[in-house]
Write a structure and sequence with these properties.
Layout (H helix, E strand, L loop, with lengths): L2 E10 L3 H18 L3 E9 L8 H4 L6 E10 L2 H13 L1 H8 L9 E12 L11 E10 L3 H17 L4 E9 L8 H4 L6 E10 L2 H13 L18 E10 L7
Antiparallel strand pairs: 1-3, 1-4, 2-3, 2-8, 4-6, 5-7, 5-8, 6-7
Length: about 250
């Protein structure tokens, strides 16, 4: 399965177009490095949580919007080769220094896909695509149970219109000086972090699908046997700004 670099960051709302332009300027370099797909998605429906949430994960300020982003690679080896090129290329360092957001509060990590369900013939999220993003703490010894649960859920999301579902298991998730993925979900000893997303053809399809999902008895949680702490999972809805798998590029 694919390998994923996942990112969550806070961008001042007034810098939306500056962020889009900055991210777009980096795409030729990422392609040169071997990144197969890049998605940058702007926060649209990002709720506050009682324990954790996307905004808290990156210490977002009142005037900031949360962005999720991911890079896809065909393999872990391809990601390692790309990372080495990025670190040694002065062009990337120069462009990175001009980022229109606080990089110190960005969280990032490398993840190995354990579930990847795609609708037949599906590419990106479509002209008006929409993405649900999730970050989940999962005990290391519950990996198989989590994957089994996620596979069943992915099949139902596809049944209700999702074009792609990916669940990716933490592989290279560093601790940060200010923020990081483990801190974001208040990970405990023996827990890993899962970075996942659902791609929809539109927000309308997504909203209709979630209403059906919540009413579907197959999706009712078995609280006694949940392979993760749902109170520390957080999620949100995002509008893709850049998606290199789409002809219009967002």
């Amino acid at each position: 399965m694919i390998y994923v670099d996942g990112f969550v960051l806070a961008v001042p709302a007034d810098n939306k177009e500056a962020f889009r332009e900055h991210a777009s300027s980096l795409q030729p370099l990422f392609k040169e490095y071997g990144v197969a797909r890049v998605v940058e998605a702007w926060g649209d429906d990002v709720p506050e949580g009682k324990v954790t949430d996307f905004r808290g994960a990156v210490q977002a300020k009142e005037d900031e919007v949360v962005v999720i982003s991911w890079f896809e690679y065909p393999s872990r080896e391809a990601r390692q080769a790309a990372t080495a090129k990025m670190r040694s290329d002065p062009r990337g360092a120069e462009l990175g220094a001009a980022s229109p957001f606080d990089g110190k509060r960005m969280i990032l990590g490398g993840f190995t896909a354990i579930v990847e369900e795609r609708a037949d013939g599906a590419g990106g999220g479509g002209e008006n695509g929409y993405t649900d993003g999730f970050v989940v703490p999962v005990p290391e010894d519950k990996r198989d149970a989590y994957r089994e649960m996620a596979e069943k859920a992915a099949a139902m999301f596809r049944e209700y219109g999702a074009v792609r579902v990916v669940e990716a298991w933490g592989d290279d998730v560093p601790l940060g000086k200010v923020t990081d993925f483990r801190r974001a979900v208040k990970a405990e000893d023996g827990e890993n972090v899962v970075f996942s997303w659902i791609e929809w053809p539109s927000k309308a399809v997504r909203d209709e699908a979630w209403a059906k999902v919540m009413a579907d008895p197959r999706m009712q949680p078995d609280h006694a046997n949940m392979p993760f702490d749902g109170k520390r999972m957080f999620w949100g809805g995002f509008v893709p700004m850049i998606d290199t798998a789409r002809a219009d590029n967002g």
